[in-house]
Structures are given as C-alpha cells and as structure tokens.
Amino acid sequence: MTTENEAVQEQFPQISIEKELQKSYLDYAMSVIIGRALPDVRDGLKPVHRRALFAMRELGIAYNRPYVKSARIVGDVIGKYHPHGDTAAYDTIVRMAQEFSLRYPLVDGQGNFGSLDGDSAAAMRYTEARMTRIDTEIVSDLDKDTVDFVPNYDNSLTEPSVMPSRVPNLLINGSSGIAVGMATNIPPHNIVEVIDGLLALADDPNITVHELMSLITGPDFPTGAYICGRSGIREAYETGRGIVVMRALTHVETSKDGKRESIIITEIPYQQNKAVLVEKIAHLVKDKKIEAISEVRDESDRHGTRVVIELKRNENSEVVINQLYKMTPMQRSFGIILLAIVNNKPMILNLKQILEHFLVHRKVVVYRRTAFELGKAEEKAHILEGLNVAINNLDEVVTLIKKAQNPPEAKTNLVERFELSPIQAQTILDMRLQRLTGLERGKIASDYENVLQEITRLKTILADEALILGIIKDEFLEIRETYGDERRTVIIDAVDDLLPEDLIAPEDMAVTVTHSGFIKRNPAALYRSQHRGGKGVSGAKNIEEDFISDLYVASTLDTFLFFTNYGKVFWRKVYQLPLVGRTARGKAIVNLLELDESEKLAAILPVTSFEDEDKSKTILMVTKQGRIKKTSLQEFRRPLRKGKRALTINEGDEIIGAYLLNGDDTVLLCTSKGKAIHFHESDVRTMGRTAAGVRGITLGEDDEVVSAIVASSNDSILVVTENGYGKRSPIEEYRIQKRGGKGIIGIKQSERNGDLISAKQVSDEEEIMIIADSGKMIRMNLENVRIIGRSTQGVRLINLEGDEKVVSMDTVARDESDLDDEVDGTAVATTELAADVNIIPDVSEDE
To answer: Active site located where (predicted)?
Structure first.
C-alpha cells in the first residue's frame, strides 16, 4: 500500500528551483524574442504589426474605402488576435501612420497622429485610419493558400503566421526593437534601390555584397538629411553591424545688407525631436557656449521643416554649423543591427542574406499561389466536364430527372448512368434552365477550353523554376514602377572615407587600342599640339603583325564598355586602364577582364555619362546570324565585376559588334555572300538588357553577317573580300529598306574575289590595314581607291600567293601619325610591301 508521504510526493513532486527558474526564463525570453520584439525576415513585421494589418484587412478598410475610427481597429486587434493593452496596439497603429517614422507608411491616418516635435497622437476615439495602397502588396494573395495560418490566442480564429508580402518591407521601412539579450535596429531604405538589388540577385545568385552596394547605396531615412561617410554602411551591409553618422540639412541665407547670416535647418536626423533640438540650441546660447547666435525660432509648417538660427553681425556661419554638429542633435549616430527572425531563430544577417531570404519567400508564395490556382482551375474543369456531358445528352438527362422520385434519386441515377462524380451530378441538378439555350451551351464549351489552357499554363509554371523567377521579377518591376520615388537622404563622403574616384583628378587621356587587343592610356597633354607638317611624338611602337586600330580621348572618370562575343559586357573606368610608357603597347584586354574560356572581345564603347539626360542614347548589338538588339544606355549604368548579360545569344551565334546610337542614325549590315541591308535605327524597338533581339537581315544558305556600320556621315562604304579584292561605293547607293529583308548586292561575288571579309565606312583621308592568314599585312591610303558602283566585283587591293586568304581589314587610327611618326608610318610583316601601294586595276571592274 502507498504511504501517506508517497501519495503527497506523487501529487506534489519536488522540482529544483534553479532548473525551474532557468526553464521559465528561457520560455519567457523566447516568447519576447519570437512573439513580440523582433521582425520576421520575410515580411519585415513584428506580430503586433502583422495582426493590426490583418485586422484592418478583415474589416475591409482598404486605401480606397472610408476611414474607420482607430478605436474600432484597436478593439479588433486586441479582442481577436493580440491579447495585450489597447495603448500598445494603438501606439503601433500611430507609428505606422507617421510619415516621419516610416519611409513608406502602412497606415493612412486622419487626425492628429503626432509630430516631429514629439507631440502625442490624439486619443483613439478621435482619430481615424485605413490601410495604405502599399498594404495591398503586403496582404496580396492572402486568400490563395500562400502562407500558413495558425490559431489565435484562444483558438477561436486563425491568423497568418507571415504575410505573403510582395514588397521587401524589412528593408524599405526598417525595424527597431529590444528583446531579451538582443536588439534590432534596421534603417529604412529606398524601394527603387532595394528592388534593383533584388533583380540583380535574381539574375546573379553569386553577386557579392560589394556589388549590391553599387545598387543599394545606403539607408534612406523618411526625414531626409545627410549620411556622412560610407564605411559604416559598408561594415553594416557586410557584417550586419555598423554605425552611420547623420547630419541635418542646412543652408545659409544672407540679410539684405549683407552683414548678417542665418542658418536654415530644413531636414533633421532620423528619430530626432525637433523641439528638443531647438531647445538645446537655445540653452547653448543662454549658457554662452555658442555666442555667435542672436536668435533661434521654429518656422516649420505643413509644408516642411524650417528652423532659423540668426547670427550676430559678421559671424562666420561655417564655424557655427560645426559647433552645432558637435553639441546638438543636428549630428547623431545610428547604430545598425540587421537582426531578424529566420526560421523561428534570431539571426544577424548581412545585406545579401536579407535579400536572399525575401527572394526565397517570394518563390514559395508564387509556387503556392500557382498550385492553389491550379487546384481551382481543375475543380472548375471537373464541373464543366459534367455540364458538357449533360448538354451532349440533354434529352436523356431531362428524362432521367423527370422519372426520379426525389433529388437524391436523380443524383444517384445521373452518377450511375453517365459515370459522373457526385459534385458533377449535383451541379447538373442545380443548373438553371437558361443555361440550356444555345448561347449558354456554347459558352460552357468555350469556358472548358479556356480552363484547359489555363491548367496547362499553370502546370508549366510549377514545373519550371525559371518561370517562377520570371513572374517574381515582373512583380518587382511593377512594384518599382508603382511606388518608386527619389532618395531623400543624401550620402556624402567623410574626410577619411573617400572612394577611388574622389582621389582621381579629372584629366584627358589618350586611350589607344591595337588590332590584336592591347590597350593603354597616356595623358593627352603628352601629345602636344603641333602645326601641320610637324615631326610629331612617338606613340606605341608598331609590333610585328600589330598596329593601333582605335584612339579615344576620354576623361579619367569616363567609362569604357567591353562587349564579348558571348553577349556579356564589362565595365572599366579610364583610370583603371594601364598607364604605361609612351612607346609601349599596353596590356592585353583579355587580362583586364574575367573572360570565360574561348570568350573574346567583340567591341569597345567609351561612355562619358549614364545620367538621365542621355536617355535618348541606345546601344545596338549585332550578331553573325543577323540578329540585332537596341537597348537603352541607361540599362548599362550599374556595373558588376564579373560582367552582365548584354544580349541573350542563341546556340552557334555570337556578337560581332556594339555601337552607340544617338536617335537618328542608320545601320548597314553586310554579309559574307556580299549582301547588304540599310535601315533606320527607328525600325528596331528598344528592348531590355537580356532580350535576344530581332531579325536584322534574312540570311541565305551558308551566309553570315561579317560587319555592321552605323552610317553617321555621307562617307563611302569600303568592302574587302578574302581574295584581296575591294572597292568603295557611295552610301547613297545603299537605299534605305526595312529591317529583316534579304538586302541588296553590296559587292558582286564570284570565285575570283571570294567571300566578303569586312566592311567599313571610310573617307579619303583614312588609312586601312589588310591582313592575310599568312601574316602578310599591307597599309594603304584610301585616296588611291576610287569610288565605283555597288554591284561591281571591285579591284585588287593586295597580291596574294598560293592559298593565302585575307582574314581581316581594319582602319588605322586617324591620328596615329601624330602619335607615331618615328616608325616610317608602316606596319608590315613582309619587307616587300610598301606603305602606299598602287592599286592593281581589275579588267572586269564594270561587270
């Protein structure tokens, strides 16, 4: 038998108070961390924010519906989902409505919701609220099984565990909170920059944090002002922790007599109280810590902040501003802690990790939404199948129903006779007689076909992650277009935090590129201006089988775009190009770029600016299979170290050139079989950076595009064939056509002259270099090549021996003579070829 002591021990077991306190405290700590103080990395919301938005959605108070009393919203929040005090819930709603607290407010408030001066909001019975437009993106598709729902605190209702947010709310609005043993302090950001970062991550999962920082430049506070220095931003984005320095935005106004200055504060640091700032300045003046100030007054109104600090006569405003930065909240630090809940665990994340978690969340949401829509479509198809059976056997169905004694018997008979499901049979019984008309019967058949097509589309999406990613990117672009705005916070450089560009003085450089792919730069001043007939100075010495093919004069801060045959583009600033001796060839371009095996350079484009005023400029890319694509120069303004996709290349194709268009140019494509097509650039619509382009010319069998020319002048067109023949023809003979056609004869081709190798627009003053596969090279002045008709075979430009073939033709840099006058003006591989040759006449020239 159980003794009395044993019975008491079973009813009241002994527990170690140390273990119980430890367990209870950990339970409490995790409850605070997960359920109260920290945001979820996916939707950027704490539980109270999520519950407030969900309660407002359930009340139906969208941004285009009438306002509802805040007390009504608070009642639903604390009564249904958040069993805490009404003050805490109302304070949450108030903060979500303050434009100076959230970069993109989540509550549209009507009434007094506080101010920058620290004024409290009016009582909840006086204010009204509703959702903002951006809230529709946060709660979008909530009813399509996109997220899990969990029971509320008393199991009477369910609430979403996370919102299926289409906007990266954690970064655009930030978050702050103190949990047990940890805290988060995430600053707000500009939505355009964050979306650009997400798009870049979607395109290149291996993108680095440093590369993302070229897109997401730093926090963007709702109160504007300055951020001083980038080192704190860089540290926070790379490690999850960092400190940025914020400064008020000021300017100086001068009195009419020019003897007094006033410092005007128009923007203050984030989370600073304007009234406290004014009071602090007044105390400094009263205590004579700043003696140059005569008066301080706050002239702020509904149009914005304006604090006026009047100085005494002949006082230096710059000195006073520096004193104010040091002694008042006009300069404050913001400690960034990128801490959020990831899979029910608090984690410190870097910038890329936050974007990755949100992108994964969007993939899950889109997949679940598509699966939900597929299920609904299949249910609809199932019902329409039953209706089709009824329509196709209408008389028999009506007879069968009439003979039934009651609806259950009719339903059973339909199931047994036509092998229908109970749902299909019930739908037939519920069908109204008006659906038996001819028009309605046709509509049922049409609906069935449309649903089958929709099912196929949805199944295709579910089977291809690339399609899901494409949908996500399209949604991101829509978000950016709808809610995008300009940055408010300006990032300025600290004295000890300068970018490389800040250390480079703008200076004109002469950039030379050789035919075999070597590049260098030298100060343009090195090549001093001379009168006609001067000796010149030595540039790059001509190496055997190489010569200077292009010369550019560009600023050290300009950008060169390097396009490869695989359709990629790389960026290099001019100051990043090798600065070598005046007579050196330079450095191989392939060693400057991270090219794949067998990838080679196809074109170089110097760009001075990517600013908004250059929106009319586009880049035209041409492939050897005749495809062309025109893309806005703006698409290439954000560089990546490993390059970007500039053109999607089909298998077996490659890019042969890239050209800068100014909006009114014409383009000439030439093929190896001597065909040419000349069209206006307006025939090619502007496309995105990753598009594959459109057809520029229809090619014949064994034909390919070998040259493209942007005809920017009336100079003649030079064509050269593999057997050493060539000719110049007037540009006017290449009539303007529509793109995509077969073109016209550019040179009459025969076994004697062979395939076309290259074509260029040239003038009498230019020189060309023709190169054979044996290494033989010849340089000639084009004034010796007369202009003849377009459909002729041309004249012999170079004597070839045996099986020799011409493999390349290029123009010699027009100004090379100014750079290199000490090397006889020649660059030949064989000594028997003179610099200027006599053109051998072709007896069949006029055939």
So the answer is: 126 (o-(5'-phospho-dna)-tyrosine intermediate)
* Known catalytic membership, residue 483: no
Bridge partners of 619, per DSSP, are 631, 660
Catalytic residue among 126, 367, 566, 734, which? 126
Cβ neighbors of 813 (< 8 A, separation 6 or more) are 512, 548, 549, 550, 551, 819
Least confident stretch, 4-18, 609-623, 802-816: 4-18
* Residue 546 near residue 828, CB atoms below 8 Å: no
Higher pLDDT, 555 or 20: 555
Note if the pTM is more than 0.85. no
Among 429-438, 454-463, 551-560, which stretch is predicted with the lowest mean pLDDT? Answer: 429-438
Cα–Cα distance, 504 to 631 (Å, whole number):
30
* CA–CA separation, 678 and 667 (whole Å): 6
Domain boundaries, the chain: 38-165, 249-329, 360-481, 500-819
CA distance 445 to 448: 5
pLDDT at position 434 is 64
How is the beta sheet containing 307-311 ordered, strand by strand? 249-254, 261-267, 307-311, 293-298
- The tens digit of pLDDT for each residue in 728-782 reads 999 888 999 999 999 999 888 888 889 999 999 888 888 888 888 887 888 888 8
| DSSP for 203-253, written as a single string | H-TT--HHHHTTTS-S---TT--EEE-SHHHHHHHHHSEEEEEEE-EEEEE
* Confidence class for position 6, pLDDT limits 50, 70, 90: low
Whether the pLDDT of residue 530 is over 50: the answer is no
| Multiple choice CATH, 360-481, 2.115.10.20, 1.10.268.10, 3.10.129.10, 1.20.1440.20 | 1.10.268.10
Determine the residue type at 509: M
Q: Which long-range contacts (CB under 8 A, 24 or more apart) does 354-358 make?
A: 354/41, 354/168, 354/170, 354/171, 355/168, 355/171, 355/194, 355/197, 355/198, 355/201, 355/212, 356/201, 357/41, 357/42, 358/41, 358/42, 358/168, 358/170, 358/198
Q: What is the pLDDT of residue 181?
A: 78
CATH class of 500-819: mainly beta
Residues 6+ apart with CB under 8 A from 219: 174, 187, 188, 189, 227, 233, 244, 334, 336, 489
If one looks up domain 38-165 in CATH, what number appears?
A: 3.90.199.10
